[in-house]
């Protein structure tokens, strides 16, 4: 397990705990104003790297296209990256481990095996709005978080938003937890915590992966899935929804993607990697707003009549439900507690009146 390798003394000469350090850094990062994009210096000579990028839609998917756009920018500074797109996330991850690529783009859930701190970000109810997503990504770009990005030979070099994860159902009458009892719900076959959570509400978990859950939903093998809006058209999820189904307009969580490098393979090619990575993180922030704009546009492609609207009271109830699920998983050791502290500070920065901000159980 990766642990922080540094501590800072406080004014009284004592050492600050990791949690307190994270809190202080998070507040400083959240309060900081946006800086202009840094000027990146070209590499002394061209460096060639390979990237394995997961996009469930394929080579013409939004993530693959964004990756190619970023790689075109990288060429300006002498970084020549060959991008290979994978529709099977597991294969992309295994190729990365085997050294067949120095860079990988994965869902943050899958990236947890490489960095537990960052991999804990996609917890139930992690964030509630794209403004909060923007704040979190900026906070993680703070240089003070750099030591937490490294775990052995792996290093997190960036994150991107994938969108709000919405509940999609083949029967719009299934609009509450109680009504989900006995129904079949797709869960990731390699994340046992999801199956436990679904079983706890009396529903039947159906093992799936990111590439198969859409097909299972469309052909009726499962009754319910959770997916971002950008998957609605490419995966033809409207076929599963049909005329009787719907999409609940409430984000279970805001999903993210993580970009990692094999530090042991990149450092010999770029000896001043740490200095350059600090600049690259700041440079990458300017692309976040553009990607969020794309995600909001994807949500608008879902027809108005498909959305299932929740009343304010129902929204509060759902918020409490996902929070309780998150707390149970924290107690089970699924998520890093420091990450949970940071996420809560982001949420309470944007909504200080929320009831959770006066509680101390997270």
Describe this structure in words.
Strands 1, 2, 3, 4, 5, 8, 9, 10 and 11 form a nine-stranded mixed beta sheet that branches. The chain has a two-stranded parallel ribbon with strand order 6-7. The longest helix has 20 residues, at 312-331. It is globular. The chain is 38% helix and 19% strand. It has helices at 18-31, 62-75, 89-97, 108-111, 116-119, 130-140, 192-200, 213-218, 238-241, 263-266, 273-284, 288-300, 312-331, 337-350; strands at residues 47-54, 79-86, 103-107, 150-151, 154-169, 184-188, 204-208, 224-228, 246-248, 253-262, 307-308. The chain is an alpha/beta fold and 362 residues long. The chain has two domains: 18-162 and 255-300, D-Maltodextrin-Binding Protein, domain 2, CATH 3.40.190; 165-253 and 304-334, D-Maltodextrin-Binding Protein, domain 2, CATH 3.40.190.
The assigned structural class equals alpha/beta
CATH superfamily of the largest domain: Bacterial extracellular solute-binding protein, family 7
For the largest beta-sheet, the strand count, sense and barrel status come to:
9 strands, mixed
Q: What is the chain-wise order of helices and strands?
A: HEHEHEHHHEEEHEHEHEEHHHEHH
CATH topology of the largest domain: D-Maltodextrin-Binding Protein, domain 2
Q: Which radius of gyration do the C-alpha atoms yield?
A: 21 Å
> Outline, from the CA principal axes?
globular
The helix content, as a percent range, equals 25-40%
Per DSSP, the total helix count is 14
Number of separate strands: 11
């Amino acid at each position: 397990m990766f642990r922080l390798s540094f501590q800072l003394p406080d004014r009284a000469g004592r050492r600050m705990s990791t949690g307190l350090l994270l809190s202080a850094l998070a507040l400083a990062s959240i309060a900081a104003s946006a800086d202009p994009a840094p000027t990146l210096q070209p590499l002394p000579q061209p460096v060639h790297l390979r990237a394995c990028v997961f996009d469930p839609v394929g080579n013409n998917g939004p993530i693959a296209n964004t990756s190619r756009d970023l790689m075109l920018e990288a060429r300006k500074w002498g970084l020549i990256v060959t991008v290979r797109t994978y529709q099977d996330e597991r294969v992309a991850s295994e190729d990365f481990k085997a050294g067949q690529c120095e860079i990988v783009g994965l869902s943050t859930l899958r990236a947890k095996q490489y960095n537990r701190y960052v991999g804990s970000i996609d917890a139930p109810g992690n964030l509630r709005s794209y403004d909060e997503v923007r704040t979190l990504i900026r906070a993680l770009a703070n240089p003070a978080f750099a030591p937490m990005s490294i775990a052995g030979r792996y290093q997190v070099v960036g994150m991107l938003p994938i969108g709000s994860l919405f509940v999609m159902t083949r029967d719009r009458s299934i609009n509450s937890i109680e009504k989900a009892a006995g129904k079949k719900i797709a869960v990731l076959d390699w994340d046992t915590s999801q199956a436990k959570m679904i079983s706890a509400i009396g529903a039947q978990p159906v093992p799936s992966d990111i590439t198969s859950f859409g097909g299972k939903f469309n052909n009726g093998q499962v009754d319910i899935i959770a997916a971002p809006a950008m998957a609605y058209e490419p995966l033809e999820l409207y076929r599963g929804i049909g005329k009787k189904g719907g999409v609940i307009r409430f984000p279970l969580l805001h999903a993210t993607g993580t970009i990692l490098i094999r530090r042991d393979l990149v450092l010999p090619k770029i000896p001043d990697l740490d200095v350059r990575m600090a600049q690259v993180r700041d440079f990458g922030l300017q692309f976040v707003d553009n990607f969020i704009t794309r995600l909001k546009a994807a949500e608008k492609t879902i027809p108005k009549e498909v959305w299932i609207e929740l009343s304010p009271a129902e929204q509060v109830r759902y918020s409490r439900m996902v929070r309780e699920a998150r707390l149970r998983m924290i107690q089970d050791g699924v998520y890093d507690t420091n990450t949970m502290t940071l996420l809560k500070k982001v949420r309470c920065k944007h909504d200080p009146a929320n009831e959770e901000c006066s509680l101390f159980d997270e």
